Amino acid sequence: MILEKAPYWAKARACATATSGEKFTVTSPFGQDLYSLERSTPADVANAVSTARNAQVSWATTSMRDRARIFLRFHDLLLRDREQILDLIQWETGKPRKDANEELLDVALNARYYARRLGVLKERRHMGAFPVLISAIERHVPVGIVGIISPWNYPLTLSVSDAIPALLAGNGVVIKPDPLTSLTALRMSDLLMQSGLPKGLFGIVIGDGRDLGTPLIDEINFLMFTGSTAVGRNVAAQCGQRLIGVSLELGGKNAMIIRADADIAKAADIAARACFNNTGQLCISIERLYVHELIYQQFLAEFIQRTEALVEGTGIGWGSDYGPLISAQHAQNVQAFITDARDNGATVHTGGQLTGNSTIAPTILTGVSESMRVCRQETFGPVVAVESFASDREAISQANDTVFGLNASVVSRDRKAALSVARQLRAGTVNINEGYATAWSTMSAPMGGFGDSGLGRRHGIAGILQYTEGQNIATQHALGFGPPFGLSDQVWGELLTRSVGIMKKIGWR
């Protein structure tokens, strides 16, 4: 098989913590058999967590400087092996190379950002309620073992980028990647060990979520999950039963608002990228376009022309704009959305048909109504519905009319007006004059969803603190809260109350 002949195969394969189950074969969306692996069992999961837990004890005492050095080295090795890694991602997912490259750069930025900001984990001293008399130390203690359940659509970003802050915070990690993209995760484990990460600290188990999800949750101290809202509810409930933390990035039905003052050609280009990058298999891609009625017809014509110019990819390498979907089954699911919309009166302006075993050309719909599944449900494919609006208020109302709240976009030449619209959108990230990349690539700001799009945040300071437990160690240096010198509770209470009032008057925080 193709990837079993790759020079890194044996080393990457050995990075699976334990796989003692039945063998399965991974087939590329391009049609070729790639490799075979054994599945992990629940016992393998327990062993992986135990191994990571043993390694985590000494890792938690490793200096922040030494941890940072490992991940800065990982950053460099990632860029060094770029072409090889891009080949692997393309073989496993079928995505265009430009989209695979976005993943690689995202992980490199993530590693560099967190490696250089570990100061947020250092102990901090605080004054207590009464200065001098009370002081406190704030600590951020690793939670222990972080479990990561990651999907197939961004196999590099959605596994390693979440593991980076968890590991840098002093935790061990056990990841369950999607079986269809297991080798990408294994390749990253190999690179991390080359960078100096202790053996066993980053474990990988191979298999389906329905088989390994519960065994993993039963062993870990925190879960990072990226996937559908339906499955996210189930895993959150399981974490709740164990009273462990969980962070969830779930589904979306993301909207873009194109105002009347937008440059039509630029807006069409922005929309094409936002809707069809990664062949629409992106949680934060745009599935709903709202265009001001004054430019609606011009924009639609330009958008159709821009979309029909996109180049289909049939193999690895540069030059394509979209590729096959991850599997024939997923392609059939997306096709069912389009067929349902067409049968219920929507107009298909371009695309809309399977052009191969698992390829659907980028599809533009108008006339979408509540009777159609595509109106409310996440398609997770190269399909977008275009509608018109008459005012910003109407556009905001339409964009917010969803249970989801992951990502949104505003396209306008008027920055002030665009900011006003953006502030009224119920979404965790809002991009102005871009679809998703500006918000996602801003590592210092949080990324996550409102409503049914999830809980918790990745990126920013929140993205590393979520993998720690906050601890407050407070010391009473002199007088305590109990009455001294034989004073009565009433007299002591009055003295304390006066002291609080005086501190406010002198500006004490």
How are the strands of the biggest sheet laid out side by side?
12-13-14-11-10-16-17
- Strand residues, percent: 15-25%
Report the top-level CATH class of the largest domain: Alpha Beta
Q: Tell me the major beta sheet.
A: 7 strands, mixed
The CATH superfamily of the largest domain appears as Aldehyde Dehydrogenase, Chain A, domain 1
Terminal CA distance reads 66 Å
The CATH topology of the largest domain: Aldehyde Dehydrogenase, Chain A, domain 1
Shape: globular
CATH architecture of the largest domain: 3-Layer(aba) Sandwich
Mean pLDDT: 95
Number of helices: 18
SSE blueprint and pairings:
Blueprint: H1 9-13, E1 23-27, E2 33-38, H2 42-59, H3 64-80, H4 82-93, H5 97-115, E3 124-127, E4 134-142, E5 145-149, H6 157-168, E6 172-176, H7 182-195, E7 202-204, H8 209-217, E8 222-226, H9 229-242, E9 245-249, E10 254-258, H10 264-276, E11 286-292, H11 296-308, H12 328-343, E12 347-350, E13 363-366, H13 373-376, E14 383-389, H14 392-400, E15 404-405, E16 407-411, H15 415-423, E17 429-432, H16 437-440, E18 450-451, E19 454-455, H17 462-465, E20 468-476, H18 489-505
Parallel strand pairs: 5-6, 5-8, 6-7, 8-9, 10-11, 10-16, 11-14, 13-14, 16-17
Antiparallel strand pairs: 1-2, 3-4, 4-20, 9-19, 12-13, 15-18
What features would you describe in this structure?
The protein has three domains: 64-250 and 460-469, 3-Layer(aba) Sandwich (Aldehyde Dehydrogenase, Chain A, domain 1), CATH 3.40.605; 254-443, Aldehyde Dehydrogenase, Chain A, domain 2 (3-Layer(aba) Sandwich); 482-509, no CATH class. α15 (415-423) links the parallel β16 (407-411) and β17. The strands form five sheets. Strands 12-13-14-11-10-16-17 form a seven-stranded mixed β-sheet, with helices on both faces. The model has no long low-confidence stretch (mean pLDDT 95). With 509 residues, the protein is of the alpha/beta class. It has 18 helices and 20 strands.
